[in-house]
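Listing S7. Sequence submitted for prediction.
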Amino acid sequence: MHTNQTNGRQPRSQTVRLAFFLSVLLSLFASCLPKSPTNTASSRTLTVYGFSVMKESLEKGIFPAFAAKWRQEHGEEVKFTSSFAGSETVTNQILQGVGADVAILSIERDVNRLQQGGAVTSDWQALPHGGIINKTPFVILVRKGNPKGIHDFADMGKPGLKLIHPDPVSSGGAMWSVLAIYGSELIKSEKETGQRDANRAQQMLRAIWHNVISTPGSAREARTQFELGQGDALVTYELDAILMKQTGADIEIVVPEATIFSEHPATVIDRNVTAAERPLVDAFMNYLWSDEAQRAFVQYHFRSITDDKLNEANRELAQIKMPFTVKDLGGWTAAYPEIIEHVWRDQVKAGK
C-alpha cells in the first residue's frame, strides 16, 4: 500500500494557511499599539494671570488668535492656562509663588511690586508703549431710567444713595475709580478757576464714599453684585459696563464729564520662565501690541494703546469731554501715596 510520506513536515497548503494566520494576528496586534508620537504636533502651555476684566478679551480673542498664529508659523500647539482676580490679589499670588509666565495687571504699581519681590527682573517699561497694552475710561452704571438722577460723579454723593464700590485694598479697578472721582474735580476746578481745588475733590470723594454699602474684592465681583440688584450705582471700567449692557441687564451707562483712562501693563514673570520657554513667552508679549491683538481688545471694548483710529471700529465706545490719565495726577509714584493712601485711606475711609 502506498502511503503519503511527509517526513514530519506540514503539507505546503497548511504552511501557507499558517503563515497567513500569523500575519493577520500580527496586523491585529499592531493596530492595538499606541500611535507613534512623531506624527502629532507637540504642545506647549502658557500660564497667564490677569486682573478681573481682562477675561473675555484674552480667552475669547487673544489666546485663540495667538495659538493659531503660532501653530501656522511653528507647527506647535499652544494651550493657555489662565486665572483672573483683583490686580492686587493677582500680584500677591505671584509673589507667593504661583507659576504664572505672564501677568496683565490693572495698575503700574503692581508691576513695581513684582519687581521689588524679585518675580520680575527685566525692564518691563522697555516694552512697546512703556509696557501698557490697552486702556479704558471709567464710567458710572445706573439703573434703567436713571431713577436717582445721576449724571456725573458729584451726583453720587447725594444723601440716601446706595453705592457698590470695589475695595482699593485688593482691586486695581477700585484705585482707578478713586482716582477718577478725585481727579475729575481737580481737572474741572482747574478749568473753571485756573487752579486745582484739592479740598473740593476730597469733599466730593468723602460724600460718595459715605454712600458705599459694599466693597467686593474686584471690579468683576462688584459688577456681579450690581447685576444681582444691589446698589443704585457703580463706577467701573467702560468695557465692563458695555459687556453688562449687552447681557440685557436693566442698566444705563452715564459718562462723566471728566474721567480717567486706566492704562494696563503686561509683564513677563522672569522668575518662572526658563531659557527654553523664553522665545514663546516673548512672542506672546510682542503679539499684544500687534494690530491683530489691538483690534481684538477693541472688539471687547478696550481702547487701543497703539492707534486711536482702531477704536473707530467699536461704535459703543463713548466720547469723553475731559479725559485725563494718571500722569495728570503725578503718575503712580505720586497718586498712590498722596491720593489712595493719604486722602482715601487716612481721611475719607477713616472718617466714614
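Caption to Listing S7: primary sequence and predicted C-alpha cells for the chain studied. The two ends are 123 Å apart (CA to CA). Residues 136-262+319-349 form a domain with the D-Maltodextrin-Binding Protein; domain 2 fold (CATH 3.40.190.10).
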